[in-house]
Design brief:
Shape: globular
Radius of gyration: 20 Å
Helix content: 25-40%
Order of helices and strands: HEHEEEEEHHEHEHHEEEEEEH
Number of helices: 8
Structural class: alpha+beta
Strand content: 25-35%
Distance between the termini: 62 Å
Strand order of the largest sheet: 1-2-3-4-9-12-13-14
Length: 288
Amino acid sequence: MYSVCCTMQISFILCVLIGTFVYRAQSEVVEHFWDSPDCLKFFYNHNVPELGSTQADVVRLCQRFFNTYHFATLYNTYYHIALYSAYIFEPSNGGGRDKNWYLEPQLINETWSGEMTDGYKLRRENPGIYLGERQALDEDYTNSGFDRGHLNPNGHHAVPGRNSTFTLTNVVPQNPKLNQNAWRLHESKMTNMFKADCHQAYVLVGAIPSLNNWIIKNNVNRVNIPEYIWNAYCCVDQNGQPIYSGAATAVNTELNVVVEHTLDEMVDFLQQYSNTPVGELFSGQCKG
């Protein structure tokens, strides 16, 4: 009798532990990116940057779409913008722009689904619940004068990863002239480089929040308008060894200019806006 009871108790404990593990593995909001190997893979050699990690109000999102992780985002729930998104470049297989804009349900209620969900669908299913306490909403951008500027660009992915970039936790208010001209051309240049030279390319794309520049709705600061947009990349061969790296910044105005940098220069640039050491953006700063 004792043996049977012990067996049942052990089985119960194992089921609880396994159930807990499965829940955490599927959860989109995680305590650390390394909690999920499928999320950690977007960082070269599993090196997660220290950049922004100690800021108040940041959450880590393993961006899940169709039950698959497509990229990782460090998101600030006060500014309502991402500090950066991390992804692996994929050659596009075509497909148009997604008509939906997705939200992260677990930023509304931590018990909700870890799968990004169309904002209008969430609103219909949850009348009376405000969805925008900890994230931007589609209507925040309407008539704001700013584009919903992708950090992780849809053009650097094949479907369905392409569709997953249309989450509002991956966009920032971007000056339309910059978004549609110089920054777009810079992303296209990266596409050509990565396709020609890289077995894989690891990319970080981020934004530097402004001190006091916001999209304001109903006299409320809703979405911070970043001062700068930036990116950094590490191109590797089939053995995972670095081939080259680079970075770029752009003032988020009609100046419409992208300035290219080395990774070390980018660390120095980002350090100006950080109270803690920025450290490496990629493992070994993507040096062989």
